[in-house]
Write a structure and sequence with these properties.
heterodimer; A: mainly alpha; two-stranded antiparallel ribbon; 2% strand; B: mainly alpha; globular
């Protein structure tokens, strides 16, 4: 029963090779989705093209449902997979600032890497910026370390723990929310496409 | 050929999302954790600083933890994943005829402005991603699918920050 550890099963080199293959699948999917292009990503925040939301939430519910079913079938033990520990306030503050970097620079780290891979100069510079930003973080972290390590630290906290619901109920609600967001995204795109067309004519 | 031919060759977003979701599930199944991008870039930064400024990575309160582990900073799963992302992106781009030295930018700015903001945006995101301990891959996608409460809070905060600031940089994109 999973999760497996390819490094333990295949050794360091074998595990690394499988890891590169999984990474390739990731990079391939991101590039196919159009995420090597900052214009496709930034358009999300002006409601013109909501690919970011569609791809992201489709991926989340696909993986979530596969894990849920695998767990139910006894193929994967959900209690043994890595669930990002919750550091609530650093996550929210960091996420908000990250969002600003996203709309200013046009990429996030994974998408910038596929942009770099296809030789986009803006993607290459974004990656360079990431390195510089991480360096600055290390230079300044001691001034806000207490906030970073302790503020809202709740450990392995899942949505089902937090809401007091079963995993199945949460998976159902998340799927429902995603479907609602897809409908809203399609309607929003259609609305702005019409508005832009009218503005061009008028 | 019309000007949209390039955009039309991108995959349907829902199909691409399913593909990405299957890869994400495979990662959980094979390694017990999700995908990551920024972690590998942090390891790379640590190795780079260690190389060009010997001794300084040890003085950097965050990078020190990455170079002092005993193993070389480039010998981790995070780096293998980044290598894979770059290879996979390259293969996809090659098949679609999108591997080409160029700059994506809004219609009303020049290349130099775009480059400056790409770098600045990267610096902001790089600093922030260490505060949040993960990016749209390691937190939003992976923590989102494994139903981490903190990752969901992070995800909504990312959209919140981006939408809140979008107005101020609208000239860059529109």
């Amino acid at each position: 029963m999973g999760p497996f550890d390819m490094y333990a099963i295949l050794g360091h080199v074998g595990g690394a090779l499988i890891n590169v293959l999984v990474g390739m699948g990731f990079g391939f999917a991101l590039e196919r989705a159009g995420f090597g292009n900052s214009l496709n990503l930034s358009a999300q925040f002006y409601f013109r093209n909501m690919r970011v939301l569609k791809v992201m939430f489709t991926a989340i519910i696909t993986a979530m449902l596969l894990m849920f079913w695998a767990n139910a079938l006894g193929i994967l033990d959900y209690d043994k997979i890595w669930v990002n520990p919750t550091y609530m306030w650093p996550g929210i503050v960091g996420g908000f600032i990250f969002g600003i970097g996203f709309v200013v620079g046009g990429y996030c780290p994974g998408t910038a890497l596929v942009s770099l891979a296809t030789l986009k100069i803006d993607g290459i510079l974004f990656v360079a910026g990431l390195c510089i930003g991480m360096f600055f973080f290390g230079e300044t972290i001691d001034s806000f370390r207490t906030f970073w390590e302790h503020s809202g630290f709740l450990g392995r906290l899942t949505l089902q723990d937090w809401l007091g619901l079963s995993a199945g109920a949460v998976a159902f609600l998340v799927t429902l929310m995603a479907l609602g967001m897809f409908v809203a995204a399609e309607k929003t795109e259609a609305y702005f496409a019409k508005k832009d067309a009218e503005a061009k004519l008028g | 050929m019309n000007t949209n031919s390039k955009a039309e060759r991108y995959m349907n977003p829902y199909v691409a999302g399913v593909l990405l979701g299957v890869v994400l599930f495979a990662s959980f199944m094979l390694f017990g954790h999700g995908l990551g991008a920024s972690g590998g870039i942090a390891q790379f930064t640590a190795a780079l600083v260690d190389k060009i400024w010997p001794g300084h990575a040890d003085q950097n309160a965050y990078l020190a933890g990455l170079v002092r582990t005993g193993a070389p900073p480039l010998d981790t799963w995070l780096i293998f994943e980044v290598v894979g992302i770059i290879l996979g992106g390259f293969v996809s781009g090659l098949l679609a005829g999108r591997v080409k030295l160029e700059t994506y930018k809004g219609p009303h700015i020049n290349n130099r402005t775009r480059w400056a903001y790409a770098l600045i945006g990267g610096i902001i995101a790089g600093f922030a991603v260490r505060i949040s301990r993960g990016c749209t891959s390691g937190q939003a996608l992976s923590g989102g699918a494994s139903l981490s409460a903190g990752s969901w809070a992070f995800m909504f905060a990312v959209f919140g920050g981006a939408y809140a600031f979008a107005y101020f940089v609208r000239k860059l994109w529109n």
